[in-house]
Protein 1
Amino acid sequence: MQATSSAQSLEVIHRGCITNIRPTKEGAAECVLSQGAPVILPAFLAAYLGSGDEVEIPLGPDQAGVEIHVRKSPTSRRIRELYQASVGYITQPKEDKRKELFVAAEAISSRLGIATIYLSCHVLRDYFYVGDRQREWGKQPTLYEIVRIPQDAGPAELRLSFKIRQLELQKEGAPKGAHKAVERAYNILAQPELRACYDTLLKDPDSPVLFPYGGFGSILVAGNRSRDGKTFFALRLLAFRPKMHQRCFHAPLRKFEFYDRTAVYRDARRKLEVAVDQSVMPVFWDQTWNQWKHLVGAKVQIEGAFLHAGKYRMKSGERKLIEWESAVPSRLSVKLPANFQEDLDKARTTYHRFGQYAPAFDRIRARIQRQPMERAELNRLLGELGVPGNFDVAQVTWRADYDVFFYRYLAERARRLYLFREEYIFDLVAGIAVETPQLGHATYLFAKPQYLQVFLALYTTATKEDIRTNRGNIAERLGFLGRLVHGSNPGSWLAELKKVIGEPIMMREAGQPVAGV
């Protein structure tokens, strides 16, 4: 009975007629009702309310103010009804029975009975794709004019002009509205899909309009509710607040995809996407970087606001909603590490040598397929084959998705490093660590053997599965201690390493190489 009572209490709908609105703390207002307790609403929402308006608000944990339906008083001529709700994915434009274009927004967890909000493409156009929301479309300055760039300007020129325009507005003491208009114009033009949509609108104002990033946020619209109460037809979009939060993280350069004017970073684990130009990431690249980027160990720091985004795509013959987070262009910054250019030059040189000395590397790979070989011995062989001495032989089996952090940490502490097949075998003071330089592999740890050569000879006879299952007691004979999954937090990996083999830990900062001890 308690569960039923609790569920019923969540279904309480607060209804009443507004008699007075009083401002409270900054950003909020108190609406006094003819019956029941007053309700606190955001100030921007309260600005559209007045005495005589009838409101419906669900009451419950974290619900008050999220969803609200307002029936304006009969004296209101411009707006008849208001509706605010959280929305998820918003559909692509399609035609209704009258051949007019619209999009449909799903009201998430609606408790007022409204399941869908319909918005015409004209409503979207006049909210997202304009600089001045108080003017008609035909009297609008173009977004290019607002940012002050030509229509054929590239991403870097666009960002530079945006930054200059921001400084000019600050110097002029321009109102907030002017700043917001410039930022809105930039964010539309900086996103290729939205820019293409806007360019089409300039040619044909009645063309389909995309809802930026597919929706996901809180929406406030004015319009009319259907007779059955399940649909709200929006005549105006008054406010949209996207689902957004700040992020700061380090992104490996090897995970960027480089194009002529932009570079795109995608992280499948975090489900996010970042597009940068050569203005926000101040280094000149071209598409040839994709050939050798996997050899770069550097990470760049990305900081900015990220929006929840989504789109339906065909997967396995079915339409599935793919959701991710996308960086807001105007609030994005990228910081390069101090040794960035050095890492780039080293990677380019290594890639060139792989082609120049291909036969020598083929011979090295053939040797380590048969037996473990110590790095110093491999370097000696490379020298005899004509390869310059500053080449790191560990690159011979390196894979594009491997995180250099784990290699650097173990290599700095290893007394000797052996290459065997696709693996690195590190001879540490406190034990043996085995790494496979590929994404998805764990670190295998072994107790310190009495005789290293005996350990190596025995290790070459076993597979990882043999070791995990202790087939033929091989794990016991090798002194297997366990495996450490790399994960997303190097600090956790380091802590586990210390627990298992007593490796001392000295971290400068999370995600960065560790100095020797």
Protein 2
Amino acid sequence: TVPIYMMQVFDRVLSGGRLETLLWLSVIAAVALAVYALLDAVRDGLVTQTGQWLHRRLSTRVIKATLGISRGGGTITLQPMLDLRLIRTFAGGQPIKVFFDAPWTVLFLGVLFLIHWLFGLIAFVSLLALITLALVNAYLTKRPNADGATAERRSTSVLEGALGSAEAIGAMGLDAGVQRLWAERQDDADRLTAMGAERSSRCLAFSKFLRLTIQMAVLGLGAVLVLRGQMTAGAMIAASILMSRTLAPFEQSITAWNSFTQARGAFERIGRLLAAAPRLSDHPELPQPEGRLSFDKAVYGVPGRERPLAGPLQLEFEPGTIAAIVGPSGAGKTTLCRLAGGVWNPSYGKVRLDGAELGVWPPEQLGGLVGYLPQDVQLVGDTVHDAISRLEPDAPFEEVVAAAMLAGLHEEIKSWPQAYRTPIGAGGRALSAGQRQRLGLARALYRRPKLILLDEPNANLDDEGQKALREALVQAKAWSATIIMVTHHLGILQIADRVIRMEEGRVVADETGQEVLQRLKSIALRREGTVQQDPKPRLPGADPTVSANDRAKGQAE
């Protein structure tokens, strides 16, 4: 619009002297510019919405894939979400518009050839020069940009690890060490990023010099053609403006190229993540199970270790029973719990619920059947209600209260400032360790699941909490739940139907709770002298007051 308007004003209005011509030319140009502004606004809105749509479309798959990889023992990081942000920034921002503007170059180039073939030839050669410069820029910045992105991810991993161990870092004064390690990795990232930016800025500076020089050349050539009578002054001005519009997208592509390469690398990483993630079950929901859990030669191992963390395991757990898993640290107790809940997938063998492998159950249905309390309790949500209800939309309040009552926490919650709307902080950090554990227990008991897995549920509980835990397990047993519990505390064995002892990832004993208690009692009676009773007695494998001979005798019996 602007080049044609200027050409008509110079060649028609100024030579003809008619204000009517200027008026109608101005009206036509104003309408055209209004249409341009409207279409540009619509395009900007569509680009933004496309970026958001792409982010929503991919984020669900990426989160599921990340969690799926964690079931195979992989590490969960924030990098996939950062990659999604890079893609959204590129697809929904200014950089991608450069690629949309580039096709119009063909139209502008054709108009320049119509004005004069020399202008078209100059524009064509200039385009080739800018394209070559853009390719050179891509080549020079590819390695430092890629290495800088890798170094940036390594520095981010330091912060991720530090945030997960913030308490220990603060208590032991590791702040300086964390800062030093992060600074070293971040310095590498900054150095490589700066190297790429410096090379790109040089190419950009040369491209600006080239574009401005070409525009001057077009004006000079136009002046020569005007003096020879081969062109009008309006056409000369129009050619100069069109030349600028023709070259602009290719000059801007040099600055947009870095965003493009980052988005492409992020897209490739997400593609590899989705390809490596285990496929989720697409089976329809199965009939509600009774809760019978079985391990069929299940083994879980990790690369680099000669011995698996657990297995082979050949076990069956019946509904309405409480099984206590005991043994020294590193025996594989936690691994057994994670395999039972589908948190990890077995490397070999099968884990079945009512005869169907855990991978066959739809994740949403299986999640409603399992109540899981890990060692390190991390609560999800903003309030106590969110934490207990597992973020279930429109969760019935009476069900939340019932779970809290089962965990013996209802009366305490009522005394909190906002009761069930009390904020819990990120991961539950606003609560004490004992409160987090009991809230985690309430979450595990929410809606009375058929399979309850508790990993050291009484590690942070006082006497009142211990009593509430025992009562909750008795009630869960009454509704025929299958209960598997890792513990070192002797008192909880009084309600256990089975006691399974593990060592080095294998089951070495499978007895009833009464048999274990009787054996421990006989060991105590054979001790010489009087041994002061521990207020929280532990199993022989974990009690330092039990001699090695007594432990050997107990195991032999």
Protein 3
Amino acid sequence: MAAPCSPTTCTSGSGCPNLWFRVRLRYPGVDAVGLSLPGVPGLVAGSNGRLAWGFTNAYGDFAQWVALPEAAVVRRRERFALRGGAWHEELLEDSPFGPVLARLPDGTPLALAWTAHRPGAADLGLFALLEAGAIEEALTIAAQAGMPAQNLLLAAADGRIAWGIAGRLPERLGPPAALLAHDDPRARWRGWIEPARQPRRVDPAGGRLWSANARMVAGEDGERIGDGGLVLGARARQIRDALLARERLDERGALTIQLDDRALFLQRWREVLLTSLDALEHPLAGEARRRVAQEAERAAADAVGYRLLREFRLEVHRRVAAAIVAAVRRHDPAFEALELPHFEGAVWRLLEARPAHWLGPHDRDWDGLLAAAATAVLDRAAVARGGLEGWTWGERNRALIRHPLSLGMPWLGRWLDAPADPLPGDLHMPRVQGPVFGASQRLAVRPGRETSGLLHMPGGQSGHPRSPFYLAGHEDWARGRPAPLLPGAARHRLELSPEPKASAALPWAGRPAGEAADARPRTR
């Protein structure tokens, strides 16, 4: 069985300081280490010596549009204070099912019923994991926690592993038409699924579990979670194959998997691009072909070939989508294209079948569409700074990790923001990182062996640029260097010592103006 390690958690970017806060909590019966949110009394991901846990976004479907009669809409006006003393008045529409946020073409109001608006959707129940000692206990705690639903991976010191959903799931039964209606008795979305019925997998036969924001389960369990934007399974498959290739896995091995920037997902596109470049009459075609042949296997920061390949795939996607949208707009000029996270499968089927009626009006055939896409990419590279040679992936994929002050005053960025490092890795591979998205932390830990644990976190956890801990650890994340999970020797100690006689409710109550209780932090 592979050694239990916590997975990468992904978010839409990071900042200075990072979203997460490194914490070690020690009190009678508990010695836990990992990541928390600033000021929150618990760990979001980490290990307590008996269990290790981590999360990825589940991307489930936890919202429902409900069609309402006009009589069910409750309208109210709210006033908002503006800078400078002015006021703004807004008409808001609400309903018993949720806020009215859209309307059907015939004017029917649509209310958004969302689990986050329900009682019990948010609490601190997850932090009971700090004292959990068994897989089943942890799964029950997680299933009852009030939090956005996440994929939870668990590993126990005795080698047991499990996956489940952390956060409550809605009990949603009935046909889609019934769920849309406000008064259909067949629809049931009134409470939460019982913890024992929530999707979970414990001790799988293969001894491995993985999660990468893709679909985890199918069938009835998959329906309970739904699809709220699940990503392609390319990254999950690459992680799975790496796990299956190892009999055992230690912390450095887990970090190696998380730093894997091989572009396996794009290799079938590589052959398409090479064939298109062979037939292309463009001054850069020969050099581009050489670069793609030699540099497209990994999303390395200095790789021109990888960027050419990636841009080519997206250009083909754009051209196919434009042809489809143009065809629809002939019947509905107001049609707007939707975001299609799984468009890859449709495009690849079209490239295999090559139906002429799916081409745009300017494409003579599918080879012509591919040649036009390759030409567009080479034309962009030709006019870029540094030309084709300077058109590296790292030039495009630079870290954009900013301090809150520089967001309002950009001229401060040169002193406050993290370095704009060229980054290896991309969306569809384990080393998932881009300018404003990616691995907000990398954690590898075996419960009971935290001294060997590793942790990466971009941006650091101090928000003060004069602090010696500002951006501390960021370079380890950017370079992929192993960094310890546990803290080192204490260099500072902050002790809060309230005056014993101070009121528990109001420390300054009953004191003359200007006199306060002695609750000052003392640094040693």
